[in-house]
Specification:
The protein is α/β, with parallel strands linked by helices. The chain has 13 helices and 14 strands. The chain starts with 8 loop residues before the first strand and ends with a helix. This is Glycosyltransferase.
C-alpha cells in the first residue's frame, strides 16, 4: 500500500501500543496524542501491537478518525493482561518481545521510511537501537527517573545497569531529547556527553479538546475522589487506599473512591477497608475519563516518584484540585489554595497519610463553600495543553526533515 499521496513527510511512532487497546499510562497517553494532534501534511504511522489477536501482523492499515487518517501496523499480538502488568521475567517483557518483532519486520519498516523524508518518535530507550537500524533520525521523549531505593514492578529494578546503558545510547544518538521531569533533564545534560545542547524539558500534555472545567456537582453528598492509571508499587496504592479510608471516616457525608484502570486493587490488603465505597470503572478511553471527571471532585498522588502524571494534568484541566505528597514537578501545576496542595514530605508514614487526608478534606470544604472555582484550577495547566505542546514536538520533527 502506498500512503505517500499529499504528505510532505512521515513520522513513524515506534511503541508497543494498540491504539484501540486498554493500556493506560503517561507514555500511552502521549503516543495517542501524537496521533490525535497530527498536522494535515504529516503522514503518521504507528508501529505497534494488536491486543485483540485478530489483526494480521505486518499489514499496514489506514485508520480513520475525526482528524482524517493515520496508519497502523501491528507487529505482534499482545494479550490485554500482559500490556497492563509488569513482567516478572525477561522473556515476558513486552518491550523485549516488541523489539524482536520489529527486527522481524525491519525490511518493511525501512521501506516505509524511504518513501519520503521521515523521522521516528520513541519513548523507550531500548528502541534507539532499532532507530539506527531503520536509518532515520529520531526524537526521544523520556518519562522520568526511577528511584533506585524504592520497589519497582518492572524489570528495571532487576537490571538497572542495562537501563542506564540504554539511556546513554539513546540520548547520545537522538537528534533531540525531551524529558518530562526537570530534575531528569538536568541530570541527562550533566551526565551524558553531547546531551546538553539537545535535551530540554517538556512535560506530557493534557488533551484540552476533551478535558474542560465544569461546575462541581453533588455538593451535599459524599466527596468523590478519583485515581486513573496503573497501580504500580511505586505509586503506593496501599497508602492511597489508607488516605481514602481516613477521608471517608472524617467527611460529613463520607467519601467515594473511583478507580479507572485495568489493575486489580484487591492485590493490596489496604483496599479491603474501602472496597465498599469504591467504584471500579475498568479501562476507559480519554473521552470517557473526561466525562467522568464531571462527577468527581478531587484527585490525589502518593507516588515515590513520577515524571509528570497525565492523570494530574487531566484532573486539573477539568477544574478538579489535586493533593500530593512531595514531588518537585508538582509545583509547576499545583498552587496552594488555587489548584491543590503539595506536602513537604514523601514517605508512607501514618502522619503523612493523615496530612494528605486533611488536605483533601480542606479542599472539599472549599469546593462546597464556593471558594474554589473550576476555571481557576484549570488555568494552572495552560502551558501543558496538547494543543500547544504537540505543535512544539511536530515543529522539531519538521526541522529534522529540513536539515536532513
Amino acid at each position: 500500500m502506498n500512503t505517500s499521496t499529499n504528505f510532505r513527510s512521515t513520522l513513524i511512532a515506534l511503541h508497543a501500543l494498540d491504539p484501540f487497546g486498554s493500556k493506560v499510562g503517561g507514555i500511552e497517553t502521549h503516543v495517542r496524542q501524537v496521533i490525535r494532534y497530527r498536522p494535515a501534511d504529516l503522514r503518521v504511522i504507528l508501529i505497534g501491537v494488536d491486543d485483540s489477536g485478530q489483526r494480521k501482523l505486518g499489514e499496514l492499515v489506514e485508520i480513520q478518525d475525526e482528524a482524517g487518517s493515520y496508519w497502523f501496523m501491528p507487529i505482534m499480538h499482545c494479550h490485554t493482561v500482559a500490556v497492563n502488568s509488569a513482567a516478572k521475567r525477561l522473556l515476558q517483557s513486552v518491550t523485549l518481545n516488541f523489539f524482536k518483532n520489529v527486527l522481524r519486520y525491519l525490511p518493511r519498516i525501512r521501506a516505509l521510511a524511504r518513501e519520503m523524508p521521515a523521522t521516528l518518535d520513541i519513548q523507550r530507550y531500548e528502541y534507539s537501537w532499532l532507530c539506527q537500524l531503520i536509518g532515520v533520525p529520531y526524537v526521544l521523549t523520556t518519562h522520568g527517573d526511577m528511584r533506585p531505593d524504592q520497589p519497582m514492578d518492572s524489570l528495571l529494578s532487576k537490571y538497572p545497569y542495562l537501563h542506564r546503558f540504554n539511556e546513554g545510547h539513546a540520548v547520545r544518538h537522538a537528534a533531540h531529547v525531551y524529558s518530562v521531569n526537570k530534575e531528569q533533564t538536568e541530570r541527562i545534560r550533566k551526565e551524558i556527553k553531547g546531551a546538553a545542547g539537545k535535551t530540554e524539558f517538556m512535560t506530557v500534555s493534557v488533551d484540552d479538546r476533551l478535558f474542560q472545567p465544569t461546575p462541581y456537582l453533588q455538593l451535599d453528598g459524599p466527596v468523590q475522589i478519583a485515581f486513573v492509571g496503573r497501580l504500580d508499587h511505586f505509586k503506593r496504592p496501599g497508602m492511597m487506599f489508607d488516605v481514602i479510608r481516613r477521608v471517608d471516616e472524617l467527611a460529613p457525608a463520607g467519601a467515594r473512591f473511583h478507580y479507572v484502570g485495568a489493575a486489580d486493587p484487591t492485590d493490596f490488603p489496604e483496599f479491603a477497608a474501602i472496597a465498599g465505597i469504591t467504584t471500579r470503572h475498568g479501562f476507559k478511553n480519554s473521552a470517557q475519563i473526561a466525562e467522568l471527571w464531571r462527577g468527581w471532585h478531587l484527585g490525589l498522588v502518593t507516588s515515590t516518584f513520577e515524571g509528570m502524571p497525565v492523570y494530574v494534568l487531566e484532573a486539573l484541566c477539568s477544574g478538579r484540585p489535586v493533593c500530593s505528597i512531595h514531588l518537585p514537578q508538582m509545583h509547576l501545576v499545583i498552587r496552594d489554595d488555587v489548584s491543590g496542595t503539595v506536602l513537604p514530605g514523601n514517605n508512607d508514614s501514618a502522619e503523612l497519610a493523615q496530612a494528605l487526608a486533611n488536605e483533601l478534606l480542606r479542599y472539599w470544604s472549599r469546593i462546597r463553600t464556593g471558594e474554589l472555582e473550576p476555571q481557576a484550577v484549570s488555568e494552572r495547566v495552560v502551558p501543558y495543553k496538547a494543543s500547544r505542546q504537540m505543535g512544539v514536538l511536530y515543529a522539531r520533527h519538521a526541522s529534522l526533515v529540513r536539515s536532513a
